[in-house]
Amino acid sequence: MIKLLILAANPRDTQPLRLGREARWIEGRIRESNAAGRFTIRSAWAVTVDELLYQLNSFEPNVVHFVGHGESGEIILETASGASRPLSQAALATIFSHFRQWLQLVVLNACYSADQAESLAEHADAVIGMTSAVGDAAAVEFAAGFYRALGFGRSVQDAFSQGVAMLTVRGLPDADVPKLIHRAGVDPARLVLAGASDVAISIRRAEDPRVPERLRGLLQDGCEFLLLSDQATRLPQRHAEEENRIFLELGMRQSDAVFVVEVNRFAEVATAATVLAERLVPRETHSYDWTLVVKGNPLAGSLSLAMAGLRSGDRVLLVGNHRMPQWAPQMLSSP
What we know:
The structure is a single chain. The chain is an alpha/beta fold. It has two domains: 2-182, 3-Layer(aba) Sandwich (Rossmann fold), CATH 3.40.50; 198-327, Ubiquitin-like (UB roll) (Roll). It contains nine helices and 15 strands. The chain has a six-stranded mixed β-sheet with strand order 2-1-3-7-8-9, with helices on both faces. Residues 325-335 have low confidence and may be disordered. This is CHAT domain-containing protein. It holds the Pfam family CHAT.
């Protein structure tokens, strides 16, 4: 499922915009597409900073579309009383840095938002901003053409080109205003929205420069990707920063299968091993103690992955020992 969050702000002391029309056109073009069932759309109006944070935390969007006003280096949100509340480029980047685990695309459909888009490019795969002032009609037409193409499964680059083409077709003067920016290592011509499943995230990680090149090659060759969430590994919130994620190659003693695992470096070895076993060897895992082994050496279960010396790119083996060795059980195998 692809989660699209539409955020709108039009403070009382700014020029009125037809925000509802843009939101309706976006939803309408997606509903008309052949992938409408893969989208979940949420809209939030008169957005304040608190509302922005609430929506990002509660919805965990893959796509964020902001419609409203912008000035050089700022987008304009609202205060609780409806007045203008500028949000600086640095502040916007700081907020979005906490949500890049889910973000594929951000669209800032507001005047002079290209600088803000540049600052967000390390937190999302692709970002669209406007290099100068953009007319209300042009903003709506661009959004309609862009999201129609995304709804039909086109790449972000193709959808962007179709959105710009709509401005030319309609005879609007702002065709050179939208700007597409992407994260280093991401090809927008190959970037297709895929949501937040493990399969979808693996598509993104296969081109993510934070992932060691060898593991990216495994993903590009079809290796299965496993995301161990902080909730699954029972990590406290203070360790939840994106910078703490590491990427491991995982093997299993009883099979030749290889996986690429994304996990927080503060996760305990025993907890991470147990979560992996529950994912990969679901039958009777309660009767085994699971651990990770590196070069034949079991890692102490009470240590964090970082304290055990694991770094991105390392290869680990998932091994289970029966708690009642007198039973001499066979290792679990797939049916």
